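Tokens as discussed.
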């Protein structure tokens, strides 16, 4: 920590110097000049050379000023960190102000150094890896956890980060940070069967801050969950198929007792619901496992929208809603037709199911040149805003009783989220209770395909 320097006589009475005006200090020089001129004048009169005496007095005053200037220059040039010389007059005021500003700057500098030291000490103590790179992506600083998790060694200072973490997925993430706002999970190059979550943040012009932490346990638990769901879903399909077959057989008996018929109808309804749940679980598991499959089909949106509209009309028979189709975009989509059709259908059937009979559901496809928008707007029961952040969680239900009545599995929007993530798209929801909802799927420009522009380019 900074140690204060000895306080000179000039600085001891700091209150007087702080609140006095410059005229106060100038008067000291003026008094000295007047004193010298009076003495010189009297001596000059005595010897008969009045003006010569005044010139000599003024020369002596000028010599005092030159001496003060010399002392100020010598202090600033050679001893700026020591106490300044004790001078009177304007030069003393100048030295005091310089010295006070210098001390204040040193105090602030010492505080900043202390703050940086504490921040660096806290980063060193973190279990998460922290790495700083410069504008050329060369490593400037790292904490001990980075050596353990990422294998960075002292000799790596000044090396390009991409020569140390060389996985293709990380290099792609490094060059396109904005495409993965939550970071990326990669396999550790230091420990086998270990996984590291990495998050990059830009600062300055091209400098980057890297944060990384071990997610092996979370990865293993997630893999166990996926394996369990996948296996249990497959195991349930066979007994459910058998049960459904026998229940349908008994239900079709014409001489079945009405009391039993009601029971079998309920059993048949519940087995259908369980089958839907198992199918959704298997679909979700497949989507999670197929993240690397290319989604590069060109989907003719007018054809897909008309197909979705026809399916919606068939589903709408029991609800009696007014269905509208609104297409004002000439762009097609690049992606997986089956996955997107499944996601869009989920949004449409939800709108139909959760809208009271006689409502209105509008299905739309639009673009603004930068994004494509698939929308489903309804006049249904709406959703309390507090539920919106959790809508795409598995098995999350806004109203469990209503979901059971409509036969929902609680996985529809989770499936939608996974499909959209694999197409670099996202879901926006606007809703108010008893005023309806609008579900908007936003696709980036890279996922849009304009056949008219392609045809024009071909003709050229």
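Sequence:
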């Amino acid at each position: 920590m900074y140690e204060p320097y000895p306080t000179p006589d000039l600085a001891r009475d700091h209150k007087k110097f702080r609140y006095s005006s410059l005229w106060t200090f100038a008067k000291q020089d003026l008094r000295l000049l007047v004193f010298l001129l009076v003495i010189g004048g009297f001596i000059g009169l005595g010897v008969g050379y009045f003006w010569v005496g005044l010139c000599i007095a003024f020369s002596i005053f000028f010599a005092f000023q030159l001496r003060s200037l010399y002392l100020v220059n010598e202090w600033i040039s050679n001893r700026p960190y020591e106490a300044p010389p004790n001078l009177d007059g304007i030069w003393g005021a100048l030295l005091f102000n310089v010295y006070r500003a210098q001390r204040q700057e040193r105090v602030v500098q010492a505080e900043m150094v202390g703050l940086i030291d504490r921040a660096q000490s806290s980063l060193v103590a973190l279990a998460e890896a922290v790495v700083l790179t410069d504008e050329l992506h060369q490593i400037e600083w790292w904490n001990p956890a980075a050596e353990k998790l990422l294998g960075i060694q002292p000799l790596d200072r000044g090396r390009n980060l991409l020569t140390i973490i060389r996985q293709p997925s990380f290099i792609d993430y490094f060059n396109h940070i904005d495409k993965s706002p939550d970071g990326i999970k990669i396999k550790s190059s230091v420990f086998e069967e270990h996984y590291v979550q990495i998050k990059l943040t830009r600062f300055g012009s091209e400098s980057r801050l890297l944060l990384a932490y071990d997610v092996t346990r979370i990865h293993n638990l997630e893999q166990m969950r996926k394996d369990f769901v996948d296996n249990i879903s497959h195991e349930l399909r066979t007994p459910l198929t058998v049960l459904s077959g026998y229940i349908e057989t008994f239900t079709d008996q014409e001489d079945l007792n009405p009391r039993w018929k009601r029971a079998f109808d309920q059993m048949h309804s519940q087995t259908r619901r369980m089958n839907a749940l198992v199918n959704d679980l298997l679909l979700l598991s497949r989507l999670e496992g197929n993240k690397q499959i290319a989604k590069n089909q060109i989907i003719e949106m007018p054809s897909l929208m008309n197909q979705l509209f026809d399916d919606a009309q068939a589903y709408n028979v029991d609800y009696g809603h007014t269905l509208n189709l609104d297409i004002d975009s000439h762009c097609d989509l690049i992606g997986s037709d089956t996955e997107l059709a499944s996601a869009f259908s989920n949004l449409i059937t939800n709108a139909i199911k959760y809208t009271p009979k006689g409502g209105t559901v509008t299905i739309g496809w639009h673009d603004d040149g930068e994004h494509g928008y698939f929308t489903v707007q309804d006049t249904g029961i709406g959703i309390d805003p507090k539920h919106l952040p959790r809508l795409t969680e598995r098995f999350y239900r806004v109203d469990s009783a209503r979901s059971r009545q409509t036969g929902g599995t609680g996985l529809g929007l989770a499936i939608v989220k996974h499909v959209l993530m694999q197409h670099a798209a996202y879901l926006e929801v606007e809703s108010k209770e008893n005023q309806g909802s609008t579900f908007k799927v936003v696709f980036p420009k890279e996922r849009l395909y304009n056949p008219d522009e392609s045809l024009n380019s071909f003709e050229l």
